[in-house]
Automatic annotation (TrEMBL):
Domain of life: Eukaryota
Annotated protein name in UniProt: Uncharacterized protein
Keywords attached to this entry: Coiled coil
Keyword Coiled coil: yes
Residue ranges that the Swiss-Prot or TrEMBL entry lists as coiled coil: 29-70
Source organism: Opisthorchis viverrini
Amino acid sequence: MTRRFSSVNVLGDRVEHLQHLLALESSKVERLSAELEDMTTTIAEAKTYERNLEHMVTQLSRQLEQKTKALEIPTPSETNKLEVNGSYKCPLVYLLL
């Protein structure tokens, strides 16, 4: 009977130890779940911020392109130049500008 009682005590201690380990692991899971949720939220916010920045860069690029085109001074291109004696000369119209 003492042997049986001893075995029950050992098993009881083991169960108690395993319950303690389970409680520790459960706490870790809860903490990690909260961290994961926070990180997921942070990533979603970062992606939204990135999309907004990309949109702003696109808009600024378009504005810069429009302003650059508006400020360009017309210059003769190679196709509008006349070839005289093997060299290109600017048409008189461009020389008068």
